Amino acid sequence: MSIRLSSETLHASCVALDGRAVLITGISGSGKSDLSLRLLDRGFTLVSDDQTIVRKQGGKLIASAPSTITGKLEIRGVGIVTMDTVGDVPVALLVDLTSDIQRLPDDSRERPILGVNLPLVSVDAMTASAASKVALALDRLGLKV
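User: That's the sequence. What structure does it adopt?
Assistant: Structure tokens below.
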């Protein structure tokens, strides 16, 4: 007998723009919080930093922060700061932070989470254009929720 989870806590940061959330995954130290901060400067709003709860609802994934870290963002060298936040946002895009980037990746890459296929892009968080790439990918590839 298999058990189907309806929610999961991911090691991911999450930001949102215009009612669509972007999950940012990567190994510890890969730049999740730093990229989130740069996206906040572009008009995104924080959903969660480092740990994000996703739950399946009506065929979509909904992102929110664990109550213990809601509205908190760790800024390396500064500390933990309080930020405006939004919760219960439909997830439209998954960003995987890596330094191994394909020059011309397949636009149809996806990764399933809780049985929902999310469009997937790989970004090197350490590049100056990382936030621009995420914003463009959300607009071009992100699910319309």
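The chain has one domain: 8-138.
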